[in-house]
Amino acid sequence: MSSDKTDLKKGSWSAEEDQKLISYIEKYGIWNWSQMPRFAGLARNGKSCRLRWMNYLKPDVKRGNFSKEEEEIILHSHSVLGNRWSAIASKLPGRTDNDVKNYWHTHLKKRAIKHKPASETTEQNDMTDPSPTFKADNTEEILESANDHTNYVSGSWFPFEAHIPSSSYTITNYKDHHDLGFTSEYHDAGSPGTIDDLQLFWDQLCPVENLEIANSHMDVSSDPFSQDSYNDPMYNIFNDDYNTDILPHQ
DNA sequence: AAATTAATCAACCGCGACTGT
DNA sequence: AACAGTCGCGGTTGATTAATT
User: Fold this and answer.
1) What's an example of a GO molecular-function annotation for this chain (predicted)?
2) Alpha helices in A8-160 (DSSP H)
3) Number of domains, chain A
4) Which of A206, A162, A211 lies closest to A188, judged by CA?
5) What pLDDT, in 10s, does the model give residues A16-65?
6) Which nucleotides in chain B have some atom under 7 angstroms from a protein Cβ?
7) Which nucleotide across the nucleic acid strands is nearest to A36, CA versus C1'?
8) Is residue A28 domain-resident?
9) Is residue A205 part of a domain?
10) What are the Cα distances from residue A195, in Å, to A160, A198, A203, A206?
11) Is the CB of A158 under 7 A from strand B?
């Protein structure tokens, strides 16, 4: 049958597939990776689409060689965090975990081993052991710091991104991000006091009078795309009519 | 110039965490 | 509490390109 999973395409992406994915996300945003390919006309599974978008097509993905500064950040971060590529990548705006991981294995691993004290060279920190090699007594502190992206994500527009990593969800409106100059990932923030930050953010993004952000959005349990949330103002921000009628750029 | 080897990096896979029902 | 669906992460693979013989 044509809808069989075995019919799903694998391997390299064509320019046409890329364009389909970009166009779809620009128009409708990211709502559900596993369902999206069907609507976007792509014979791919959601995982493949997500990976392609995150690692290659997303507008803020940085291409090109790593700078010396970036190398240093990776080396230092890896010594603290181990193979937590995502955490390391979050310190390098525009770089993906895949990029960082590849770069580590192809460029930096040997150097890191070379500079390690002899007593440590027999230990892991390579791809066979994913566990970080924490040595300090303040491990928790280090981890906490590593999760606080606000300290080091330069150019990050969102003041409370990643504060609540376990309960985050993402709303994306890529349609206008080119014009506005930033990406629009919104991680739900359950931390107190951030409603003002969110209001400020939306004021800047959509300087529209009477646009209200309901306090309910700060509730972790409130999913703006859930069935019963269609009267939710946050949902309206992201639906097409809103974009067409209010936002200045198409 | 051709063959071989090494380096690179995009993409896949499996798993665990999280969330909703 | 159990289950299913979704997402993100880290390890690994394999195709392509570059360098070397």
Assistant:
1) DNA binding
2) 15-28, 36-40, 46-52, 68-81, 85-89, 97-103, 109-115, 139-147
3) 3
4) A162
5) 999 999 999 998 899 999 999 999 999 999 999 999 999 999 988 988 88
6) 7-14, 17-21
7) C6
8) no
9) yes
10) 10, 5, 12, 16
11) no
Residue A124 beta carbon within 7 A of nucleic strand C: no
| Distances A182 to A88, A142, A158, A176, A239 between C-alpha atoms, Å | 21, 28, 10, 9, 19
Q: What is the pLDDT of residues A192-239, one digit of tens each?
A: 233 344 444 444 433 332 223 322 232 323 333 333 333 333 333 333
Overall size of chain A counted in residues: 250
Which nucleotides of strand C lie within 7 A of protein CB?
5-12, 15-16
Among the residue ranges A37-46, A90-99, A139-148, A156-165, the one predicted with the least confidence is: A156-165
Residue A98 Cβ < 7 Å to strand B: yes
Measure the CA–CA gap between A177 and A72, rounded to whole angstroms. 30
